[in-house]
Amino acid sequence: MSLPEAERFARLRLARADRIGPVSFQQLLDRFGTAVRALDALPDLVRKGGGHGYTLPDHSRIEAELAAGARAGATLLVLGDPDFPAMLAALDPPPPLLWTRGDVALLDRESVAVVGARIASAGGQRIARGLAQQLGEAGFVVVSGLARGIDAAAHAGSLATGTVAVLGGGVDDVYPPDNASLYDQIAQQGCIVSESPMGARAQARDFPRRNRIISGLSRGVIVVEAELRSGSLITARLAGEQGRDVFAVPGSPLDPRSKGPNELLRQGAILCEGIDDVRRAFETLRTLREPPADPPFPDGGDDVDAAFLDRVAALLSPTPTPRDEIARALNAPIGAVAAALLELSLAGRATLLPGGSAST
Fold first, then answer.
1. What's the confidence (pLDDT) of residue 290?
2. Contacts of 182 (CB under 8 A, 6+ apart)
3. How many Å apart are CA 224 and CA 250, to the nearest integer?
4. Is the Cα dihedral 139, 145, 150, 155 positive or negative?
5. Strand, helix or coil at 115?
6. SS (H, E, C) 299-347
7. CB under 8 Å, gap of 24 or more: what pairs does 316-321 form?
8. CA atoms within 13 A on the CB side of 255
9. Are 180 and 165 in contact (CB under 8 A)?
10. What's the 3-state SS for 237-253?
11. How far apart are the first and last CA of the chain?
């Protein structure tokens, strides 16, 4: 069932509020049930957590973003919409929203990501293009990040069968500019996706979020060429954390771009030389993953006082600490600890992390 327009507007506004990331967004929905109620409570929660002078995004700012989306022919999907991709909705935590251009139906088809070096060898680009073509012919949508090199080759190889480009900037931010023609083709034949606001220019801090969506949309991630310190290996790590298969194309030890895939193979990634390796992996019975944890606010969240907030804050450190450990240390209900951590994060005194942990 579709969300009411007022709730969709509120979810976009909540996602654009200061100090609201995917974890706090999900926890606010868990605690208050709707974004409308969460927005009403937010300034008071920040004040209780020790923050001052908090203001919500103005309605006109949200209306301007929606108008910019309409001008660009983009479609907004917020968490809870019927068309929101099921693979992303199942993440812990899911992204609060997506802006899209093109064929939204591609986001719910079975997908495989192909990623790798921006400065890729001719041979690596040929492998990526060939793999993407084989994947498309086998019925998979190919997901990548529209970067130069391996990403661009993967998109080119799967244009005819279905490709999704996930951007770091806004869905209308063509980056890099020399991929403008490829961007236009994907907008017409595939789908462009971004979590960032309309008009936003890609910055370094946006790419980990982009990589998380690339892996989250996909059943598996194939790394073709990548150096050891690269965004492609971050995508592979995120894929492993999300329970996706990680594939690596082996390469010459003389080429620095082979160090990333070769290291992934040492760590247990699946060797990939073609579509048959992908098929075999997907046909193998996977280890069952633990079910997601119960929502931390079974009764809408416990009210906490300033003294309890300070006791919770005193137990935090730069090392992530699970909330159930904090609850045990304080001999307190986990709902009260979760409520305290949420309020501390909104006041800028804590950072909420996936899986129910927090740090300073």
1. 43
2. 146, 152, 155, 156
3. 8
4. positive
5. strand
6. CCCCCCCHHHHHHHHHCCCCCCEEHHHHHHHHCCCHHHHHHHHHHHHHC
7. 316/344, 316/350, 316/358, 316/359, 316/360, 317/359, 317/360, 318/359, 318/360, 319/359, 320/353, 320/357, 320/358, 320/359, 321/357, 321/358, 321/359
8. 19
9. no
10. HHHHHCCCEEEECCCCC
11. 39
- 13 contacts 20 by C-beta, under 8 angstroms: no
Residue 245 structure tokens: 């298969």
**How confident is the model over 96-112, as a mean pLDDT?**
96
Q: What is the helix (H) or strand (E) element at residue 351, kind and residue range?
A: strand 351-353
Using the CB atoms, write b or e for 35-56: b if 16+ within 10 Å: bbbbbeebbebbebbbbeebeb
Place of tokens 């976009």: 12
Written as six digits, the tokens of 243 are 């329970």
Q: Binning pLDDT at 50, 70 and 90, where does residue 287 land?
A: very low
Closest CA to 166 of 183, 190, 145: 145
Task: Give the pair of three-digit tokens for residue 169.
Answer: 């900037």
Nearest to 257 by CA among 135, 145, 157, 115: 115
Preceding amide of 93 cis, omega within 30: yes
Q: Quickly list DSSP for 168-214.
A: SS-TT--SSGGGHHHHHHHHHHSEEEESSPTTPPP-GGGHHHHHHHH
Assess contact for 255 and 262: CB atoms under 8 A.
no
CA distance linking residue 319 with residue 36, whole number of Å = 33
Angle at 109 between CA 179 and CA 69, to 5 degrees: 50
- Rg (C-alpha) for the chain, rounded Å, is 21
Residue 152: C-alpha distances to residues 67, 175, 186, 215 (Å): 30, 11, 11, 17
- Which phi and psi (to 5°) does residue 244 adopt? -90, 155
DSSP 8-state assignment for residue 105: G
Average pLDDT, the chain: 91
3-state secondary structure of 146: coil
How does pLDDT run across 58-94, given as a tens digit for each residue?
999 999 999 999 999 999 999 999 999 999 999 989 9
Torsion of CA 298, 299, 305, 308, to 10 degrees: -20
